[in-house]
Specification:
The protein is mainly α. The protein folds into 2 domains: 40 residues, no CATH class; 50 residues, Actin, Chain A, domain 4 (Alpha-Beta Complex), CATH 3.90.640.50. It has 4 helices and 2 strands, in the order ββαααα. A hairpin with a 4-residue loop joins β1 and β2. It is extended, with a radius of gyration of 19 Å.
């Protein structure tokens, strides 16, 4: 891959000064793990951050952090607990309703 410089990197976009994609053909098969590692490395070179999230608690913590950054608001622990349990992960809703809420209803 050709070298390029990141001019600006924000939460929403990355601007590079030059990018020339090189044609590459592999002579062998890649394992799923190798493919995933290469994809993550490629995204990191483009300015994306890789987070080590391996359990539900870490995922919920990251969701809270991202919502706080997006809305420029810091939840107290009580506010977050109430908001998460009543609005995001209500026990009265199934997976379809929860998914729809996050993807289209803009909680």
């Amino acid at each position: 891959m050709s070298l390029y410089n990141i001019v600006v990197s924000t939460e929403e976009a990355t601007v590079v000064s030059e990018y020339v994609a090189e044609y590459y053909v592999s002579n062998s098969y890649q394992s799923e793990a190798a493919l995933e590692s290469e994809f993550i490395r490629l995204l990191q070179t483009q300015g994306y951050e890789y987070l080590q999230i391996h359990n539900e608690a870490a995922l919920i913590t990251n969701l809270r952090r991202q919502l706080e950054l997006l809305n420029r608001y810091t939840f107290t622990d009580d506010e977050w607990s109430r908001f998460f349990n009543e609005r995001i992960a209500s026990s009265n809703e199934g997976i379809v309703e929860k998914t729809r809420k996050i993807q289209t209803d803009h909680v």
